[in-house]
Amino acid sequence: MAVHDVQSSSPRTGAQAVIAHATDPARRADVLFRVRREQGHEISSWWMVGAFFLVSAGVIALLSFVPGGH
């Protein structure tokens, strides 16, 4: 049996090993923040819109402290 045949039957990287043994991809050990929710319990897109404006306002507020602006 050749060495190439043994390597082709096993995963070549750690990520492939995790995926090969995963029963539910959303619950993999290398996925930190992905959550599978029930139908109808998804997060509202308005939270993302609000987060965008909040982060944008924070960046603008912090940039106002940078000297040399008009």
Description:
This protein has 70 residues and is mostly helical. It is built from three helices and no strands. It has helices spanning 3-9, 14-20, 45-63. 47% of the residues lie in helices and 0% in strands. The radius of gyration is 23 Å and the shape is elongated.
Topology:
Layout: H1 3-9, H2 14-20, H3 45-63
Strand content: under 5%
Number of strands: 0
The rough form would be described as: elongated
Helicity range of the residues?
Answer: 40-55%
**Structural class by helix and strand composition:** mainly alpha
Count of helical segments? 3
Attribute tags:
70 residues, single chain, mainly alpha, elongated
Short description:
The chain has helices at about 5-10, 15-20, 45-65.
